[in-house]
Amino acid sequence: MTLTFQTHPIDLILLDIEGTISSQRYVLDVLYPFARDRIPVFVARHPDHPVVQRALKETAERTGPGQDPVAALIAWQDADQKVPPLKLLQGLVWEEGYKEGAFKGHIYDDAHAALEGWRKAGVPMHIFSSGSVKAQVEFFQNSNRGDLRPYFGRHYDTDIGAKVEAGSYRKIAADLGATPDRILFLTDNPREVAAARQAGLHVVQVIRDPSVKPNEADAQIIADFDQLHSLLRQG
């Protein structure tokens, strides 16, 4: 199956999660409160867990001596900071929550329809999200649309680089064996739009909130995935 974005041939699609295929409110209203309550309990119950030990060690290295690492982790989450040791523990406690059935990963209906169509057409799809790869996999395994793990090839998080840096997208392209100008990236974040475009990717910004104005006048904007039909053709 050949994909064409406007007049440009596309070999694969790279997707953001939060704000693009899933609601930002799901993270802020469901996942973050759960992690805030569970991280102190999980750390106390599993002091010998290797991931817990690694997260606490990395936190102490960042905060310095005399600081409560658990309090620092909670403060980072309250400030919505994507700090590696916090992401490690979030992944662990969210895994527990999914297994307990406390919540399901949220996928927009229009996004799921597009993903399903691309999968049936054999279009390679990959994920680049600020959440850890572990958290991404748990999210898709336990989504409100069932187990979506087979839909995606590779998962990338900020271990490969910041999402607002062009070099991160070049690394992803190289890892996938693709040239940047044959990749279509979908995200809601204008800084990610700029970085990906600088790296040579084709980008569509997803702005679901009509009160949000685009930062780049020439950026391709959609309000939902249904509007991709006029931009992305299969043939």
From TrEMBL:
Protein name: Enolase-phosphatase E1
Catalytic activity field: 5-methylsulfanyl-2,3-dioxopentyl phosphate + H2O = 1,2-dihydroxy-5-(methylsulfanyl)pent-1-en-3-one + phosphate
The protein's required cofactors: Mg(2+)
Family: Belongs to the HAD-like hydrolase superfamily. MasA/MtnC family.
Gene designation per UniProt: mtnC
UniProt-recorded Gene Ontology molecular function terms: 2,3-diketo-5-methylthiopentyl-1-phosphate enolase activity; 2-hydroxy-3-keto-5-methylthiopentenyl-1-phosphate phosphatase activity; acireductone synthase activity; magnesium ion binding
Species of the source: Inquilinus limosus
Gene3D superfamilies: 1.10.720.60, HAD superfamily/HAD-like (3.40.50.1000)
EC number: 3.1.3.77
